[in-house]
Amino acid sequence: MAGSTAPIIFILEPFGGSIRRHNAALPSLFWDDAGVTRGDGVFETFLVRQGRACNAQRHAERFAASAQRMGLPAPDVNYWLKATEEAVSAWVEERGEEAEGTCVWTYTHGRASTGFPSAWLTITEIKPEQLRQRREGVSVLTLPRGFTPTEESAQWMLTGAKTLNYAAAMAALRHARAQGCDDVIFTQGTGEDARVLEGATSTVVLVKKNGKIRTPLSGGEVLRGTTQEALFDAAQAAGWRCKAKDLTVADLYEAGSVWLVSSVRIAARVTHLNGKKLPAPDNEQEVRALIESAVTSA
Ligand code: PLP
């Protein structure tokens, strides 16, 4: 199989058991899978680098928490991690140790006709656009998210779970692209006083001019980010002062640098915010290296 460019697909048994390599040229889901018809499932996206899935423990923990929030049977994360190791070995065998990839775990409520969950994982190539944004940064539009969970609605809403339902995030990205931007930061409210939530598929991290690192509090409307968590652990150990707290759009304009961090793109610096240029800080390379090493050593 050396030289193969087909994605790696493994079908898992939701209650544990055999792991089966699936031929990428063949379909694997039924027409009535709740993941497809309702977006009713959860997923995790990992970076594969140097023959390993990075930050795996944090991803596995968030996966289990999302599944619980979605009413899915508790996944055996050790079984998923073992399947991931097998898939990464196959990836390295077929592409070589240097090939970076995107590994995705998907777990859905399964077929409407059986109610038996579906579970699979894939490793694919990283999209060239993501690699470009990693290198060159992103121009970003702030957009109000349009809903705010109250204490009562938060009890049933799936805030905080990484669900398959990304239709609103994809629509926001299309809207941003139509206006010549690469990405979106969701806010609560409008204008400079608006509260910063998160990127469409990333966590907002801000490095202040005095060297402090800030991110919006997670929970509620903000998904807990595994990249941000790894960064804060590594940065704190290296002497940076890190804190999660409420941030406004005005804070973004005033920061030394603003970053969108996520597992595969890792760190994309925000170069333009609502059309305004955010100049590169002197410590850009230092911050980038800190984020990269935090993720890849976790
Ligand atoms: N917030 C949202 C809404 C996301 O979709 C993602 C990642 O996909 C993140 C934050 C960043 O999470 P992570 O760093 O675990 O990739």
Characterise this structure.
- This protein is an alpha+beta fold and 298 residues long.
- The chain has 2 domains: 8-126, Aminotransferase class 4, branched-chain amino acid transferase, N-terminal domain (D-amino Acid Aminotransferase, Chain A, domain 1), CATH 3.30.470; 131-296, D-amino Acid Aminotransferase, Chain A, domain 2 (Alpha-Beta Barrel).
- Helix content is 30%, strand content 27%.
- It has 8 helices and 15 strands.
- The chain has helices at residues 34-37, 56-69, 77-95, 128-136, 167-178, 226-237, 249-254, 284-297, and strands spanning 8-12, 19-22, 41-49, 52-53, 101-108, 118-125, 138-144, 183-188, 195-199, 203-207, 213-215, 242-244, 257-262, 266-273, 276-277.
- Strands 7, 8, 9, 10, 11, 12, 13, 14 and 15 form a 9-stranded mixed beta sheet that branches.
- A hairpin with a 6-residue loop joins strand 1 (8-12) and strand 2 (19-22).
- It is globular, with a radius of gyration of 19 Å.
- The model has no long low-confidence stretch (mean pLDDT 94).
- It binds pyridoxal-5'-phosphate.
